[in-house]
Amino acid sequence: MTFTSRIRLAACAFAITAAAGLAQTPKPAAPKSATVAISSTLATEGSNIRQYAFDGDPATAFVSAGNAVKGDTVTLTFDPPVSLKKIAVATGKAKAADAVDAGALECSADGEKFDSLAPFANGSAAAEPGGKKVKAIRIRVDKDLGHPLAVSEFTIDCDPPVAAYKYPIEFTVVSTDDPSLKEWAEKVARVCETEYPKINEVLKSDGFKPKTQVTMTLRSNYRGVAATGGARITGSVKYFKDHPADVGAMVHETVHVVQNYRGRGNPGWLVEGIADYYRFFLYEPGKIGRLNVNTARYNGSYRVSARFLDYLTQKYDKEIVRKLNAAMRKGAYKEDLWETYTKKKLADLGAEWKESLTKK
């Protein structure tokens, strides 16, 4: 083989190796969809919550509690940022009452500095940015309107796509005995709003209509961590001042809002186990901590029962949590359900799970 041939052969080998290396390097996966959070400088009137402005239903609307004035905004923030192709927004209710007659539709690449997309005319605005990268869009009022603001619907075409709110919800921080926790509580409320539709998908059942408003209160005289009654969540000022990173505790309480159980026939260990199953296996996986294998029981409640439910989900029925929740929501829970879903009695499942822990 000549020297020149060796060089050519080496060059070909290098090219093949490089191509193989490039082929083996996976490209970052594009997100399948984006989430959106909606906020406003205006308070909400009654049950006309903010998310009604992007729920795909023109019959509903966000309506402000007071008159809109110059500088008021309604903002949609995307995570991750999206390439915005088209956008339109309609304001006002019947006969265009409460519409924007002086304002602008704006967008922002960073959520801080906004540029104009289109002015409002006859209560509506629309634009075709042609794929412009945006973090946020907003309505900005340019004068005192002399009436409340009603936003009927945003219509958005973007990549990745963003779905309208299937389960509209608004968390309101009613009060906190410590004003220094107000900002923290508002941020947590937005997290709970983001998790709310995901929880409803996991725990969906026929005919169930989720609540659309939840109140959150932080009290100095509450000695636990947090508790839920209906659509009211109460948290401990002391606990959350000491543990501000424990947002998952409030997500756990949000699961209780969605569970919406009535009656007293549901086992407490399972109620709390389902809430912690969502928290530790779907919201913040990997943070459940260690388990004492010697003392673990399937009905140990909270994190322990969450582990038991995950085991059954993985081995027997991926829908078992949803099915159990549906029965509990109807007041139809009975122990025979475990055998219906897994072909094994609850006690036997517990023993089997316990044995599996010793094999790890």
What is the chain-wise order of helices and strands?
HEEEEEEEEEHEEEHHHHHHH
Count the beta strands.
12
Task: Report the mean per-residue pLDDT as an integer.
Answer: 91
Strand content: 15-25%
Straight-line N-to-C gap: 58 Å
Helix content percent band: 25-40%
Q: How large is the count of helical segments?
A: 9
Rg value? 26 Å
- Helix- and strand-based class? alpha+beta
Q: What is the makeup of the main sheet? A: 8 strands, antiparallel
Gross morphology is elongated
Give unreliable regions as ranges: 1-25
Task: Tell me about this structure.
The protein is α+β, with helices and mostly antiparallel strands and 360 residues long. It is built from 9 helices and 12 strands. It has helices at residues 3-24, 182-202, 237-242, 248-259, 268-283, 302-315, 320-330, 336-342, 346-358; strands at 35-40, 62-63, 73-91, 103-108, 115-119, 124-127, 132-141, 150-159, 170-176, 213-219, 226-229, 232-236. The strands form 2 sheets. Strands 1, 2, 3, 4, 5, 6, 7 and 8 form an 8-stranded antiparallel beta sheet that branches. Helix 4 (248-259) packs across helix 5 (268-283) and helix 5 crosses helix 6 (302-315). The chain is elongated and about 65 Å long. Residues 1-25 have low confidence and may be disordered.
